[in-house]
Amino acid sequence: MQGFFRTNPNIVMHFMEFFDVKKMAREAHVLRLGHRPYRDLRLTTHVALISRALGASSMILAEKQDEGVRSSLNKINKIWGGQFEIKTVEDVREFIKEWGEGGGFSVHLTMYGEKWTDGLIKELRQDQSKLLIVIGSQKVPHEIYELVDRNISIGNQPHSEAAALSIFLYEIFGKDTLYRDLPNARQKVVPSPRGKRIEKLSSE
Ligand SMILES: C[S@@+](CC[C@H](N)C(=O)[O-])C[C@H]1O[C@@H](n2cnc3c(N)ncnc32)[C@H](O)[C@@H]1O
Q: Whose CA is nearest to atom 22 of ligand 1?
């Protein structure tokens, strides 16, 4: 058996990759602070689409429900599959506290946070508790910095919650997540060098 692995190093590599992918499959949810219904609809919808496409399971809005975001995401789920959810919470501080008390882990993305390093990302990938990713829009109250488990920066310049979230989710879930097939999709994209190719998966 040992000889088999020695002469087939690729098999060992595949095993390692397999277990690494398993480790990376932690459940992630995005908490978007400061969403102003109607005014921020487009960016919040983009944040939800990014969360869904890059591997998160839900986006939680810390303001009144915005039916526009919810209905856009429901339409996307119906066509392209999956069960990505939009939820709302009334008391953000309580929500983050309870997340930790329930065994979850929370990170807040902010330019003022700890430097994003390969070591930190590895640590976050290996942790299998439910991950809450908190992002802001305008000024985030200081209390949030205290409530979360880690404040992490994605570079030391101000940019956007959409960019910070994309980079962070990509680092946690990796490239394969971008090309995964979601359950109950009605259609899927057929990659092609030009034009748009779609494969219908059900007649609904
Ligand atoms: C308009 S920016 C405000 C930038 C803000 N001064 C901050 O704390 O990062 C809105 C949101 O984008 C995210 N963001 C912007 N730049 C970031 C960076 N360099 N690293 C991590 N998150 C960032 C944060 O979640 C922030 O609340």
A: 110
Output the CA 36–ligand 1 centroid distance in Å: 17
Verify whether ligand 1 is closer than 6 Å to residue 140 (CB atom). Answer: yes
Please report the beta strands in 45-182, taking only residues with DSSP state E, as ranges in sequence order.
Answer: 58-61, 85-88, 105-114, 131-135, 150-152
Q: Find out whether the beta carbon of 193 lies less than 6 Å from any atom of ligand 1.
A: no
> Tokens standing for 168?
């962070």
pTM: 0.87
Is it the case that residue 49 has pLDDT exceeding 90?
yes
What would the mean pLDDT of 84-109 be, rounded to a whole number?
Answer: 96
Homologous superfamily of domain range 2-179: SPOUT methyltransferase, trefoil knot domain (3.40.1280.10)
Does ligand 1 come within 6 angstroms of the Cβ of 165?
no
The H-or-E segment that residue 199 falls in is: strand 198-200
In the chain, what are the domain boundaries? 2-179
Mean pLDDT of 83-92: 94
The pLDDT confidence band at residue 22, using thresholds 50, 70 and 90, is: very low
